[in-house]
Amino acid sequence: MNKINALIYFLAFSSGFCIMGIELLGGRILAPYFGSSVHIWGSIITVFMLSLSIGYLLGGKLSTHNPSLAKYGVIFFIASIMVIPIVLFAEPIMAFIFSHIEDSRYGSLLASTALFFIPTTILGMISPYSVRLLVTDHEKSGQVAGGLYFVSTLGSALGTIITSFYMVLAFDVNDIIKTFASVLGALGLLAIAVSQTRAKERTVCLES
Amino acid sequence: MFRVLIGCVILILSFGVYSEVIHKERSLYRNILVEESGDLLCLKFNEKTRKSTQSCMYKSKPKKLVFNYTKMTFASLLFIDNPQNVLIIGLGGGTLSNTIHELYPNASIENVEIDPAVIKVARDYFQFIETDKVTSKVQDGRIFIKRAALKKQKYDWIILDAFNGDYIPEHLLTKEFFAEVKSVLAEGGIVAANTFSSSKLYQHESATYYDVFGDFVNVVTDKNSNRIILAGLNAMPSDQQIAKRVKQLAVKLAPYDVDIHSLSEHLLYTKDNQNWPSDTKVLTDQYSPANLLNY
Question: Which ipTM value was assigned to this complex?
């Protein structure tokens, strides 16, 4: 496996980690306004599944237009920026929804949509885009997709357990979310940087 | 022969305390059991490893309170006169509501319980009384109090009894929640919380109460059981005032088996007597791993 592919797998792993970490903290974020009953999880999981499904579609579509590692990095970078409003605006958004909607089921559904829909959709774009970047031989496309799902879902599993078992004991919810955002942003920039160096190397090769 | 005899004795003894499950129900949150053993009727939540008893009643003497912590809750009356608006978060068998209703028939009592099945069982098996003045509502306690604050409602006696021994709703043990509770507390009112007296959580909980309410009172009669936190008092009453209230309440509370005189001797004031490290981390909506700290 070449270094670029290893980087793509690592990025997919990290996005899986962050998605589930954020989803898990979603319960924490909503509880003060909408309680911690089972329908809160209903709202959160629905919104995450829905936005991931839309993200898969969009990511797949995007991958048909001149796919590149640089664009892949840009997806991460945008996702990182879209996670930040969870930290900055969760309180006023939830307070507004709380005062306008009595039923905590629909209140929590709307709040989780407002907070998580956009970042999760963008994070959802990563999986199909990764597959596009990794596949070179259509005979192996299924195997590559399998490997990618393996890595990103493993990331999700670890993101869930590490966040819920250890991180909530050590850090504030917002600090954990900020860390996820920074990691996503840094990885995006890394992908962009790597693709730039590669482009330069290629140009150098061609010139010589 | 001797062995057989021992066997018989054990069998008889075990029959003596034999308890029968007379109602079983799986609710959205848990398995609920109503168990009858002799004169005692108990509401239990069934977990895999053990049953946690939530509320009990003597069938022949329904007035008489069974649990120490229920009795301890009435230490609140040493600090307030004649409560008129009572809020109870966490219904259980409805024992507190029934008792307060009998003591103060004119008081309005709002019970908030997240689990509709618990309310049903309280009505069907524990003679939970509901009137125009005594109501129950199915809602998360945090949401109820937030809405009450928006409506500018005030209560002079707020009882927090939503922890079931195994699980703490973490959003009900944060600085922000207590601030909301404080915002619906009437002038001169009191908050009474039924909670733990051991575990690492003790310190965090104390620090969090102190952060919001300032000095408070712990009611602890037995180190290994629950404590009742009494918070929200503007001024601590003098010993004479307490003694006066003990006199007034003693007869009134006797039928419920509440020994108010003894309770008045188990009040631990945190003023000048903080029993937690001053750098203890306050629990907030941002940091509230209460269940992970409760060991």
Answer: 0.87
Question: What are the φ/ψ torsions at residue A33 (nearest 5 degrees)?
Answer: -105, -30
Spelled out in words, what is the top-level CATH class assigned to the domain B68-293?
Answer: alpha beta
pLDDT in tens, B83-107: 999 999 999 899 999 999 999 999 9
Domains, chain A, ranges and CATH? 3-207 (1.20.1250)
Q: Chain B partners of A175 at a C-beta cutoff of 8 Å?
A: 286
* Long-range Cβ pairs for the range B106-111 (8 Å, 24+): B106/B133, B107/B83, B107/B133, B108/B84, B108/B133, B108/B134, B108/B135, B109/B133, B109/B134, B109/B135, B110/B85, B110/B86, B110/B135, B110/B136, B110/B137, B110/B155, B111/B135, B111/B136, B111/B137
- The three-point CA angle A30-A34-A38 to 5° equals 90
| Tens digit of each residue's pLDDT (9 = 90 or more) over B211-239 | 999 999 999 887 667 899 999 998 888 99
CB contact under 8 A, B174 and A32: yes
Structure confidence at residue A6 (pLDDT): 96
Secondary structure element (H or E) that encloses residue B44, with its range: strand B40-46
Residue B243, H or E segment: helix B239-253
Q: Which residue of B has its CA nearest to A107?
A: B143
Average pLDDT taken over every residue of chain B:
89
A-B C-beta contacts closer than 8 Å: 53
Q: What is the pLDDT of residues B35-76, one digit of tens each?
A: 888 899 999 887 655 667 888 999 888 889 998 889 999 999
> Strands, DSSP E only, in B47-179?
51-58, 85-89, 108-113, 134-138, 155-160
Residue for token digits 């054990």?
B10
